[in-house]
Amino acid sequence: MEPLPPEPWDILQLDPATATERDVKRAYARLIKSYRPDTNPAEFQQVREAYEYALHVLRQEPATAPVIPTEFPQGEVPPAAEPASVELPEDFQAALADVQYSVAHPTTSSLTASFAKLRNLVLPQVPLLPAWEHALLQVFADQPQTLGKLLEPEAIFRLLSYDCTALANLAVEQWYLEGLTLRLAQLANRCDAMRPPLESPPVVMLQMRLAMLVAFVNLPVSHRLANTHYPKLPPNVRDWVMPRLENRMSAAKLFEMLPLETRRFWERRLFPEDNETVEWDLATVEPNYREITLRCPLSWPGYNLLREVIPPSVLQALRSRSQTAVRSTKLSSTPDAGRKEPAFSAWFVRAVLLFIYLAYRGVSSCNSSTPNYTQDRESTRRMLDNLSTSADLPKDINVLILKRDALKVTLERTPEYRAWKLGNLKELPLPYQHLQQQLLRLNEEIDRRKSETMLKR
Amino acid sequence: MIGIDLGTTNSLVAIMRDGAPVVLENEQGETLTPSAIAIAEDGGILVGRAAKDRLVTAPDSGKAFFKRDMGTDVRYSFGKRRWSPVECSAQILKEMKRIAELRLGTPVDRAVITVPAYFHDLQRAATAEAAKLAGLKVDRLLNEPTAAALAHGFKKPGDDSTLLVFDLGGGTFDVTLLEVFDGVVEVKASAGESRLGGEDYTDQLSQWIMKEYHYQPSTAESGRWRAKIEQLKRRLSAEQKAVIELGDVQVPVTREDFQAATTDLTARLWPVVRRCLRDAGVTPKHLNAVLIVGGASRMPIITEGILDVLQLAPQTNLDPDRVIALGAAVQQALCDGSEDVGDLVLTDVCPHTLGVSVSKQLAPGHHEPGYFEPMIDRNTTVPVSRSKPFNTLHPQQDEIKIQVFQGESRMVTENQLIGEINIKGLRHQPGQRYPGVVDTRFTYDMNGLLEVEVTNLNTGLKTNKVFQQRPGSLSESEIKTALERLAPLKQHPRDAPEHRARSERANRLFAELSGPLRSQLSEFIDHFEGALSMQDPNLIQATAEDLDRFMSPFFRSEEEDHPPF
Asked: Model ipTM?
């Protein structure tokens, strides 16, 4: 009998793009008639694994491969945009606007106060009317953390209990992220503990763990580190790592939800490298993420931060040019012999350009201890005002000068992103599906009791 | 050649005839042979109906229900000697062989014998030994629910369906979930309890009557007493109300009485069903049919319960008493490569998780031994072969003891030790590519035999061992010694009652779950225990909350006793 091909889909002789569950089962049934478990155990196991893999992929597809439409046809409105705000009471609208403002301009007291106000309005209304939910979603779609803080756990549970609402899913995201951060911190500690022996002769166990962590962090982000570490591993170690990864896919998906800078932080924390050459291909790194926040102190000399996000070669090129030249330079045309140029997303390039622009315009020389700080800040503001009216800079860049410490440039997430995100909130991950069922029952009970007491009255 | 259903109460033998399985009758035209043996007054040996009748008048002259003691060291004394359960079973098998030879007219030397899915390997080995004593070569030990499904799948080939086989036999309870498609009968998961069956219902009913009517059967009656209760139980299946004679009074017993007397038994059934569904990743609405197997599952209290829990009426078109034997005959035809069965392929799963004992690094420089590292998860389709590398903890460590365990607990002390392999020569030496690393491979075949092979990656030296025998579950005294060994450990945050309770819960849940959920849980537990070993109160609290959050949905379902779907 001929040996089976290594790839699952080849074993099944199916095309992953078109195959259905039914096809997979039929192919499996056909194959194991010749590779019977009692006569060909090894081949049977191969066929079996291919079959399980294929079923897994087919059942997972919609969840694991979210694709953001790169372009929306003109005039097509994301479906969630319809419900009108007419039904919303004024105090709710006002509170919502308040929260929105305090999130953008954070001070602890204003946040707490506006949260409390909104919470008091929202909580008694759970389950929320569609219009309310819609309004909340529009505001918090990008900020699960904020929503999580706004709603208390009890409220989230109640939300969960009613329906698989998008709002509840959004609120739960925060819990996942917290759990993930904790886990990352622990991973980092373990990595630290493992690091010294790695410098001595290679210890394969440690390599494995490291590879696992690398892959864990990188799987959804980029294959950069994974690509550098994997080839170094012996094949049996890779075999060992791969099944573990599958269990971590949910964690990996969460990681994807973290903002870029947070991910960068953890990556560097987990895998510091001495002679780091960073290559970021935003097209692969950020397929469904349109926001990049760059935050830097006003004492920013200009390049330290940039070094973290763009390749040294590009940076070198940028540094060697005058700022006006930089502004008009297309990065893809930067001359750099012997190295493939990363394809930057246009958004990212614009943000970086803005930073460089600001740096050269004197903002870099300013810090909180500078006597003419206020004046500089004023001039910066004015300059930024000018910037945002000038036609050649994108309008959707928000520039905030945060009190004292930082300058924050935000690219708004595109409406496409929001639409995608809202669409994706419908699917609840596994443990919470379960929880939801539980709560559903609890709530029926609560409702029943409520109606009983109403009747008594 | 033949398929034998070696049951707790009754045994049957079946063959393939003209492309269909049929159950064979003995000279009296009976298909069910009671699984009982007895010694006649003249010292001759009685098997089957005769033995059962003899036991009514002389309870001490023989033994029935010995299947429950298979794989243990229990011995029965009757007829001037001591009998092991294996010897008793061999007598039954001999009788089956005799019936087959009588009907076929040719000598019979090979058979497929069914065993409850939850039989562990010692029990399986005991069954195989009994066959050997009876002069039969065992082609396959087939799990009973699988046999039932095979009979069903053979009857209606080509249909795509998801079946749940609910097998409440005389002494054991098994639930198996199967998918039948394109001539494949695939077992997706099985779960069970080895000491729960129709006989327990009889016991409970007998106790209830004795308590309710303050009745103590006289010594003369004691032999017949059980049969009487058995009959009452059967009548209650057919009618709402039945009458039993106690001495010279007749008392009525209703089906409600029976139900009330056995609630605790019935309540033990559903968690097993749920675990099976969960392992297979199937919800009741995906089920196409529920097959009931085993005489006890015909009781209305069971069928009504099934309808209640699974929202599906159990199918009864195959006789629950015979379906296992029919399936065994189909399997025998498969083993023979007979044309009757065509292209039917049967895949089965391994019912327990198999793994090794490992040390975990809970915090930098802090290792804790005695963790169970699963190699083959329960309900993995067999045959299967999996490998994982393990390494020494210290460069100077020369030896690794690979201890093989079976069970679902996170700590190996609560799982069953199957055996161990020692590997030497692992001390780190300069120039080694994989210092101190061994590759461990578990191979589990279709008959439930486990082969463990350990390879020293540096020398390429392989050591392997086949595990055929597994000891029974831990005895009371073994558990006690294990606990005593743990007692004098120093006081530590993990000994705080609150944390202990949490760990207990977590370990209990760990045993319940499988697959990704189990590894997720394991990770949460590891973090929590890591925090405990670091003795950092903030981290302990944070990890504890995480763990609780993960666990709460599962436990809430248990407390409410609602199915989690």
From this structure: 0.70
